[in-house]
Amino acid sequence: MHSISFNQVTPRVFAEVTDLHSEVWKSQVTFERGKKYLVAADSGCGKSTFCSYLQGYRNDYTGQILFDKTDIKSYAIRQWVEVRQRHIAMLFQEMRLFAELTAYENVMIKNRLTSSASAVEVKDWFSRLGLSDKLDVKAGQLSQGQQQRVALLRSLVQPFDFLVADEPISHLDDTNSYEMAHIIREIIDKNGAGLIVTSIGRDLPFDYDKTLKL
Ligand SMILES: Nc1ncnc2c1ncn2[C@@H]1O[C@H](COP(=O)(O)OP(=O)(O)OP(=O)(O)O)[C@@H](O)[C@H]1O
User: Fold this and answer.
1) 113 C-alpha to ligand 1 centroid (Å)
2) Which of the following CATH numbers is that of domain 3-213: 3.30.70.260, 1.10.10.200, 3.40.50.300, 3.20.20.30?
3) Is 156 helix (H, G, I), strand (E, B) or coil?
4) Taking Cα atoms as reference points, which of 184, 185, 178 lies closest to residue 203?
5) Ligand 1 centre from 121 Cα, in Å?
6) pLDDT (0 to 100) of residue 23
7) In angstroms, how far is the first alpha carbon of the chain from the final one?
8) Reported confidence tier of residue 107, pLDDT bands at 50, 70, 90
9) Which helix (H) or strand (E) holds 40?
10) What's CA 108's distance to the chain center, in Å?
């Protein structure tokens, strides 16, 4: 997948809003593979909605979203599975870890689907994010910031053309935010992937190609 295009997309919830000042909704915008985008939004402007559309969890909008030249409203479940496994990696704002699995198991259970990272690599990322001593701790017993770092690693252990990160540093201090950015940069550069980061304030530190207001 080389591009994601939004053509005059209007979420149903915003259909009656006449003073929508957005560079994404009711607009024409294309996200290209290999580029980095920051989607800046105030609370309630539709960040989670935007992410849900890209994973096929919701389709309550008018207008068109195209993956390359295909309208994603035509996708069957099988194609969404392919998108989620191989084309768009997602770091959810609410993390969605399995509370009863350990931090390491949460990452490896996903990694087993496509074997995209080695155990050595994964453990090295844990170490760089200050989580070496948390490998065997259940996710439900981690702090929010620790869960956010584990969720990042889980999002990365798959092939992808785009990484979509929904408020990825909302629970992190500056040191971990910078380390998270380094790891993301290494992997997206290696894959030539695109990056779409949403933010309501503190931004993942990056040299973004473009910033859009949601
Ligand atoms: N599943 C849903 N179905 C229909 N409308 C929804 C759904 N989830 C959220 N909305 C509505 O869409 C609008 C945007 O909500 P959304 O959760 O996308 O915003 P957000 O920018 O992620 O907000 P926040 O930063 O506060 O989490 C809100 O008016 C909300 O009521």
Assistant:
1) 30
2) 3.40.50.300
3) helix
4) 178
5) 36
6) 96
7) 23
8) very high
9) strand 36-40
10) 18
Nearest ligand 1 atom to alpha carbon 214: 21
- CA pair distance 17, 174, nearest whole angstrom: 37
Angle between helices 119-128 and 103-114 (to 10 degrees): 140
User: How far from 82 is each of 3, 113, 136, 184, CA to CA, in Å?
Assistant: 16, 12, 30, 22
Q: Which of 20, 48, 92 to mutate to test the pocket of ligand 1 (most atoms within 8 A of CB)?
A: 48
Asked whether the beta carbons of 171 and 203 are under 8 A apart, the reply is: no
pLDDT by residue (tens digit) across 114-132?
999 999 999 999 999 999 9
Structure ipTM:
0.90
CB 47 within 8 Å of CB 214: yes
Beta bridge partner(s), residue 210: 37
Q: Residue ranges per domain, the chain?
A: 3-213
Element (H, E) at 196: strand 194-199
Chain-centroid distance of CA 113 in Å reads 18
Determine if residue 130 is left, alpha or beta; phi over 0 gives left, psi from -120 to 50 gives alpha, anything else beta. Answer: left
Q: What is the pLDDT of residue 90?
A: 95
Query: Strand, helix or coil at 98?
Result: coil
Q: List Cα–Cα distances, 110 to 57, 99, 200, in angstroms.
A: 19, 15, 28
Q: Which pair of tokens denotes residue 65?
A: 């979203």
Tens-place pLDDT, residues 186-209: 999 999 999 999 998 878 888 999
